[in-house]
Design a protein that fits this description.
Elements lengths: L4 E2 L2 E2 H21 L12 H12 L9 H4 L2 H16 L1 H11 L6 H10 L8 H31 L2 H14 L19 H15 L2 H17 L3 H4 L2 H25 L11 H14 L15 H13 L12 H15 L6 E2 L2 E2 L2 H28 L4 H12 L14 H16 L1 H7 L21
Antiparallel strand pairs: 1-2, 3-4
Helix pairs in contact: 1-2, 1-4, 1-6, 2-4, 2-18, 4-8, 5-7, 7-8, 7-9, 8-9, 9-13, 10-12, 12-13, 12-14, 14-17, 15-16, 16-17, 16-18, 17-18
């Protein structure tokens, strides 16, 4: 596939550089004394870490957000989260649209690559709807949060509600409530279900949003069957998301039912709610209602798998994505059944999509593996906590077994690079660092079979 060029750079290069630029600006702003709470001093590495985790919507923090940063600093962090969740390119395009400026072809190509869209058609409308939909959902989430935070914190609860809503929708997992995330609200249904809704809404993908809207209009007008009218992408995103959330919910409930450090003393309803929250937050959100180090080894391993998978494409979530893992499994199943084509929901999956899914999965695994080895070399702690940290960084989740704050400078640098690589995307990196143009093979090499497995 020929890479598209924008001012001499591939669109993938532009997207990567835009994230670096925002991280650099965020670091400089967070270094300013006005960004720090009274009596707090922040080093360059911690400011860089905070800017990176905000832009990459990861949620791992080396310093407690609520006590380290002033209101100005918190505003900077929130802006970085919003830009990171939607993407700098989307924000810039939205500003042009709001000023009634025409979006040129370069901007359209950037949006197409940023959201991994298949066509340039309707890019302006898509961008406008993404921004409007994002602000609408975040506003609804903030209103629900206010019913809890305003009575508890007074006028400050409004700011806490807005911050938490944007952070949850962008799957960032950063909060300004306490040092232990949302652990104080583990039995609060409004906080739990509002956060779950925002995480899923942001992580399901904007393409799915508009497909659902378009299909609902068809259903009202023509009485068509809703699920049949959905695109294959939407069907895969919705079904795989439901499968992973429900599976995680059941497994966490079973594994933690009698764990005195987590949910053993809860009522049945609270046990179910806490288990559901853990399953949803591993979609790369990073909020926690139970300290992650208290979970059993079985639950921690399930969390690692769910974090690595993450959310759905073209949304605010990270990970290799639900659609990716669904395509990989379907391809493996087709091979086992000796089927030439990979079919899902009565549609044949393209060879390009299968190859891309395999590439994303392999590249993510390489990033995670290298990061794990490097962090293990510089950190003296148990292997499960190290794996939790690196998977969380690779998939931009933000969940930790209380390790992030104790990292030395080398550990912080490793996680910073891992968060950036995880956010930009393995397949984007593979394209961006490729210096060779696609060539048409005039002479084909001989075919020879090999043994696999």
């Amino acid at each position: 596939m020929q890479k598209k060029k924008v001012a001499g750079f591939s669109t993938t290069h532009v997207i990567m550089l835009s994230f670096l630029m925002v991280i650099a600006i965020g670091t400089l702003l967070l270094m300013l004394p006005i960004s720090h709470a009274d009596g707090q001093q922040v080093s360059f590495i911690d400011a860089l870490f905070m800017a990176t985790t905000s832009v990459c919507v990861t949620g791992l923090v080396t310093l407690t957000t609520v006590s380290t940063w002033s209101i100005f600093g918190q505003v900077v962090i929130l802006l970085l989260i919003q830009i990171g969740g939607l993407g700098f390119i989307t924000i810039a395009a939205g500003i042009l649209i709001s000023l009634h400026r025409k979006m040129n072809m370069k901007s359209r190509m950037l949006i197409q690559d940023a959201f991994n869209l298949n066509s340039l058609s309707g890019i302006v409308k898509f961008t406008r709807n993404v921004i409007r939909g994002t602000f609408l959902v975040e506003a609804i989430g903030a209103l629900f949060y206010m019913t809890v935070f305003v009575p508890e914190y007074g006028a400050k609860g409004i700011w806490i509600s807005v911050f938490t809503s944007i952070s949850a929708f962008c799957n960032a997992g950063i909060d300004i409530i306490a040092s232990d995330s949302l652990c104080g609200y583990v039995t609060n249904p409004i906080i739990n279900f509002t956060t779950c809704f925002l995480i899923i809404a942001g992580g399901i993908g904007f393409v799915v949003w508009w497909d659902l809207v378009n299909v609902s209009q068809k259903v009202r007008q023509k009485g068509a069957r809703a699920f049949r009218e959905l695109s294959l992408h939407t069907k895969l995103a919705l079904s795989s998301t439901a499968v992973f959330i429900v599976s995680g919910w059941i497994l966490f409930f079973i594994f933690e039912y009698n764990n005195p450090l987590t949910i053993a003393d809860f009522s049945l309803g609270d046990k179910l709610m806490a288990s559901l929250f853990q399953s949803v937050t591993t979609r790369t959100a990073g909020f926690a209602t139970i300290p992650q180090e208290n979970f059993s080894n079985a639950s921690s391993i399930v969390s690692l798998l769910l974090m690595f998978i993450g959310g759905s494409p073209a949304g605010t979530a990270g990970g290799i994505k639900t659609v990716t893992i669904a395509v990989v499994f379907a391809s493996a199943l087709a091979t086992i059944r000796h089927q030439k084509d990979v079919t899902m929901f009565g549609r044949t999956v393209t060879k390009e999509a299968i190859g891309k899914a395999a590439s994303v999965m392999c590249m993510s695994f390489v990033i995670m593996f290298v990061s794990t080895v490097l962090l293990a070399a510089v950190t003296e702690t148990d292997m499960l906590s190290i794996a939790y940290e690196t998977v969380s960084a690779t998939a931009t989740v933000g969940l930790t077994r209380n390790l992030t704050g104790s990292l030395d400078i080398w550990g912080k640098l490793i996680i910073i690079v891992t968060m950036y690589l995880g956010r930009v995307g393995p397949i984007s990196l593979a394209v961006a660092f490729s210096t060779q143009k696609e060539k048409q093979n005039v002479i084909k090499c001989p075919v020879e079979d090999i043994s696999v497995g």
